[in-house]
Amino acid sequence: MNEVRLFGILTKDPNIRHAEREDGYDVARFTVRVEQGEREDGKNYADNINVVAFRKVAELVEKKLKKDMAVIVLGHVHASFYTNRDGERVFSQDIVVDKIDIVTAEGLVNMEPEAMQALPETAEEYTY
């Protein structure tokens, strides 16, 4: 089973890429800082996890998420390769969003699950 649940803080505002072609779709990329606990030297450490959202979910991310917001991300791992501008093959690993909740002092703010449409089913559809 490929399922991921993250609780963390957005490290910066999401980066949104709007579709340039009629058959394209919006993509939102952001990083979630997930605290991992205390090291032996007494200092806390964290991981910065790359997250990506597509289509309607990307639109919601653009409208509702900002730097320093606490979120719970439910999603799955997607690994792929791409060729960068220098012609080098690069490995990429992201968490693809299935659902996001915003965490506030009052509790969770559900980001309209009816808008969380089915995500692409094949790896080729993740090309961006």
Key features of this structure:
about 130 residues; mainly beta; 5-stranded mixed β-barrel; 1 helix; 7 strands; about 50% strand; globular
Topology:
Blueprint: E1 4-10, E2 15-17, E3 27-38, E4 44-54, H1 55-64, E5 70-83, E6 89-104, E7 107-110
Parallel strand pairs: 4-6
Antiparallel strand pairs: 1-3, 1-5, 2-3, 3-4, 5-6, 6-7
Order of helices and strands: EEEEHEEE
Total helical elements: 1
Give me the Rg, rounded.
Answer: 16 Å
What general outline do the C-alpha atoms trace?
Answer: globular
Global mean pLDDT: 83
**SSE class:** mainly beta
Helical content band = under 10%
Report the span from N to C terminus: 24 Å
Task: Give a verbal description of the structure.
This protein is mostly beta strands. The chain has one helix and seven strands; from the N terminus they run ββββαβββ. The protein has a five-stranded mixed barrel with strand order 1-3-4-6-5.
At a glance:
The chain has 128 residues and is mainly beta. Helix content is 8%, strand content 52%.
